[in-house]
Amino acid sequence: MVTYDEIAGMIDHSLLKPTLTDREIKDGCELAAKYRVASVCVRPSDVILASEILKDTAVLVTTVIGFPHGTTTTAAKVAEANEAIGNGAIELDMVLNIGKLRSKNYEYVKQDIRAVTDAAHARKALVKVIFENCYLSEEEIIEACKICNEVGVDFVKTSTGYGSGGAEDKDIRLMRKYADSRIQIKAAGGVRTLERAIEIRELGCTRFGCTATVGILERLK
Question: Which fold has domain 4-220?
């Protein structure tokens, strides 16, 4: 059995669709506060609004860096991270450079992640590194885990939720096997039911991105 607080505490309520209006962002933040989830994950331009709405709650503000492709320059990612933290973000979901990883340019990938992680940790923010596993081989997922271990990130994350695939069991198992035990795992893409939330929890995930928050948590209520 799982409790309401256990599942709610795993949810990063996702508000990332490019068409969302300010009103929809406000409503989504108020929903997150009502259901007591871990955080809301908003677009960078919405961090100030979300921080204002959630300032008297326990819900954290998360935003995305280099989203959704990970191909912006390292300097741009660091600038984005610093601005987001200054605007009130507590956690950053950063997309690694997928093409560089697939090119086996591991030093580039490591320095890209390190630069954002160092900037975030200097200001007491957490970093979740998004792999986008649907585009990666097992070897590439393992290498990404090793890089994240070396850099000292806080989470590794399966997907953006906007790629061709989401959180797959085989990939979560691989990440849990090769990521250091101190690094947490976040699933994204396809976690839409309570049953699936429990499954990924049992696989070792401590967070998941979610748009189906109400449906999942009303079941537990």
Answer: TIM Barrel (3.20.20)
